[in-house]
Amino acid sequence: MIRRFLLAAVCLAYASAATPQLTTIQDVLYRADGSRFNGILTINWGSFQSSDNTNIVMQSVAIKVVNGILRVQLVPSPTTPAAYYTVVYNSDGRVQFQETWSVPASSQPLKVSAVRVNSASGAISSGGNITTGPILESQVTGLTADLAARPLEGPAFAPGRVAVINSLGSIDAVDGNPSDCLHVDGSSGVCGTGGGTGASFVDGDSPSGIVDGSNKTFTLSQTPSPITSVAVYRNGILQKVGQDFTVNGSSLAFVAANTPQPGDTLLASYRVAGVGGSGGASPSPQVLCSGTGASTTGTTLISIGACAIPAGMLLAGDRVEIHFDLAHSGTTSGFTFEVDWGGTAIVNRSGASGDVLVSGRAEAAILAARSQLSSQSWGTVLPFGAGVTPSSDAFAAGLTINFQGKLAQAGDTLSLANYTVIRVP
Fold it and tell me: For the whole prediction, is pTM greater than 0.70?
């Protein structure tokens, strides 16, 4: 009799321990397009102890969801230490997404939204195991080795500076002045220098020489090094060395069949050898103004284009190149055109009614307190003309280059088709 009583007591205790409290999750699942979800939910959990001290072993269960209807009962997730369920949604034969659940104790069915938690809350799933808290670097495969392989801060590291890799593979900062240039070996210095081994670039160089349809030889402002770096553009079209032109030192020689014609614009880009020691930077041409101008049908000289050079832009030793092209339509009248450097006329010429096109080039050599101006111009009928004149206009305070034109008689149109103003320091 006593043995039966003890057996009954043991069975009763076992039965009570085998039935932990469960919470029901019941909901209808939808896709983003509004259709009901159909598929498999695989719910994974690691070993944990429930709030009623029931030991829950690591396991997973697959729940089939038909027409969006989900109903599952789970042991509430403890909060100390925290434990979570990982739910994998599988549909159409592949995993769609994964989310984390924290199931509270509830006597009423809960929606999925009541148990879903942000994965960043600390629940981490790996192979069905649920863990909490931070992961050690050593627990991530290959992480320690990858971190050891990355470049480290060197003894000369400094924020806000250009980085360079030192001989030990660490990151140092380049030392130098803010205006210095950086060389490929990590050293710095005055731009355009390099102990005889560096190189500088010259872009937008306008070769000097008369563009009259006969002259084939032009001169670059510097000697290219290497010669193969020379790129010449005629009216924006790249010319082919050896086929369209040849290079000898700083001299360009166009072939006879490719002789530049009046109105053509020539520009060149190339490299030059670095200057040893502490020499200054190589000249870098700067386009101050460019574009198309206006037209006039009047018989009074009027501005059809202008380029305003701000104060402090020009310094002694600079050179300003002015390129302009005019177009004349009609046969009734001749015309007059003028280019002014501040209050000084660089060029003033008159074209005939047959001058359909006119081109001109002018330069201003900036001296210590004044400028020396030179010009050359020609047209369809207008013969080539050149001139030189001094100017006392105060360039340091800023001045305006003004393009003007007028017709001898009304009826025709004179237009500033194109103009470019380039500063060569």
Answer: no
